């Protein structure tokens, strides 16, 4: 029985012609084959962070996490919700379904939080809501700042006021967060023995701060030809002003915070510290937006921004690291 190969062996010209036809057909198919772009896949999540200073993990779970979870789980486009309750902090992550509009979800979450705000403790901070990419939960690159002349609270304040707004204006930047910073705060370290000797409680000092440290809108006065806006300096700004507050009166003597506490300008979290090369540092982390997913940002723009001399001055040193970019 003759096989098909015998025919091509006996007729080599036919074999060459058939091969050329196959090559030409394949080349034609290759040039006309439609190539579609990769489909746009948006996988996002909404992160809700609520701070309740001094509360235990059980209190945070019962009074913050549970009501917020119940409110946000009913919005459209939710895949699943996960939460973490720690002492003083409630973190809720709302994972959205694939390709769900994250902007619409953010608006719905914000509206639901406004509805349940009255159910949350008055002492708790307002919930902070942000959208993050589920496929890139970490930042795309990090900037570390160290200084020989500024302490960490001052460096944090400088980064928040100057560097964070500048970095947010770069093309493709979705968010810029300060990591490892210690914001400036007025610290009042109460001495319990001195306080008890005067028959006072920490709540008395707190009440004195609320009575004397506030912002007042006085209003304005009008005349026939002149209108003057009235301003009143009712807030406290220096440690000396806080020290001279009137807390109470005992035996005809005025008790001030300087009598029962140590008042100083320090950091909100004095026990928190981050380092870079054995030096205390503050980081700026940045994530890129969906529009910059396929661009070379921040690899191209960051060195030029750093080299322009705007971020780093004589009193500060900055360096940057990028996370591995997916192909």
Please describe what this structure looks like.
This protein has ten helices and 16 strands. The chain has 327 residues and is of the alpha+beta class. Among the domains are: 39-137, Alpha-Beta Plaits; 185-267, Multidrug efflux transporter AcrB TolC docking domain, DN and DC subdomains (2-Layer Sandwich), CATH 3.30.2090.10. A four-stranded antiparallel beta sheet has the order 2-3-1-4. A four-stranded antiparallel beta sheet has the order 6-15-5-16, covered by helices on one side. The chain has a two-stranded antiparallel sheet with strand order 7-12. The radius of gyration is 31 Å and the shape is elongated. The model has no long low-confidence stretch (mean pLDDT 81).
Q: What are the salient characteristics of this protein?
A:
single chain, 327 residues, alpha+beta, Alpha-Beta Plaits, Multidrug efflux transporter AcrB TolC docking domain, DN and DC subdomains, 4-stranded antiparallel β-sheet, 16 strands
Put the structure in a nutshell.
This protein is an alpha+beta fold and 327 residues long. The chain contains 10 helices and 16 strands.
- What is the CATH C level class of the domain at 39-137, in words? Alpha Beta
Shape: elongated
Radius of gyration: 31 Å
How are strands sequenced across the largest beta sheet?
A: 2-3-1-4
> What is the mean predicted local confidence, pLDDT?
81
Report the CATH topology name of the domain at 39-137.
Alpha-Beta Plaits
Note poorly predicted spans: none
Continuous helix count = 10
Number of strands: 16
User: Helices and strands: which structural class?
Assistant: alpha+beta
CATH architecture of the domain at 39-137: 2-Layer Sandwich
What is the CATH homology-level superfamily of the domain at 39-137?
A: Multidrug efflux transporter AcrB pore domain
Helix content bin: 25-40%
Estimated share of beta-strand residues: 25-35%
Give the N-terminus to C-terminus distance in angstroms. 54 Å
